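Hi Y.,

Following your request, here is the sequence exactly as I used it, all 248 residues.
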Amino acid sequence: MAVIFALKNIKEKYAKIALFIIIVSSCISFLLFSPSAIIWKITPLLSEINYPWTLLAIMMFLISLLAGYLSRQGKILTLVAIALGIIAMLLFIPYAKPQYTVNRGDSFYLTNQATTTSSNEQMPLWVKKMPIVSPAQKVELPSGKIDNLSYNSRKISFTIDLPKPETIRINTIYYPGWEFAVDGAKTAINYGNQFGVMDINVLSGRHVINGVFRETPLRLFSDFISLFSILGLIAYLVYSVIYKFKKK
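Below is the corresponding structure, written out as C-alpha cells. Let me know if you'd prefer a different format.
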C-alpha cells in the first residue's frame, strides 16, 4: 500500500525519498532469507558481514523514516502505520528469546586467546596464526633463568640471567602502546612472528625487564575529545537549567 501511495505522489519530493526507502528496505528484507545465499557468496563486501540479521539495524532506521513519512499523510495512514507496528511487535515476541544456549565451561573461556567477536575481526593484522590454547609460559627463554615474574593486562616485569644473548618471547599479542625497557633502557619490540606476540633481544648477563602498555598519542587525543564532549554536555545542561529558572 505504501508503494502504491508513493507512486501516486511521485512528484512530491518526500514521496521520492519514501519510494527509495521502500526499495532499499525490500532489498534488505530479501537478504535476510535463504534464497539470497548466492548473493552473499559472490559479493565481496557482503561476505565481510558475519550474520545477515545485523542488517536489521539499517532496516529499523529506514522503516522509522518511512513511518514518519506516513504519519504526515493523514490520520488513516497514521493509524495504519501504528497498527502495522503493533502487529510486528506481537509477531516478534514469540521469537524474542535464545533458541538454545551453549555452555563450554570456564576452562574453555580461560584458555581461549581469541577475541570475543565471532570472526576475530578485532585481532591485529599481524597475527597470522590464531591462538587455540594459552601458552605454557608467559615468558619463553631459549636458555637462562627467569625470576620475579609479575604481570597483568597492562604491565609485566621479570628478571633474567642469560649465559648468552637471546631473543626473549613475551606471549602477549602486540598492540600499539606496548613499551619495553631492559635495565631502564628502552628496547625495540619485534612482533613479526606468526602469532604476533612480542620478542625482544637481550644481551648476556643479568637484566631487569619491564614492559608497560601506555596510551598512544592518537588514543590520548581521542580520550581528550571524549572528556571535553562530556564536560561540554554537562555545562550545557547546567546552563539550560539555570537559564530556565532565571526566566521564570
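The chain has a mean pLDDT of 82.

Thanks again,
Q.
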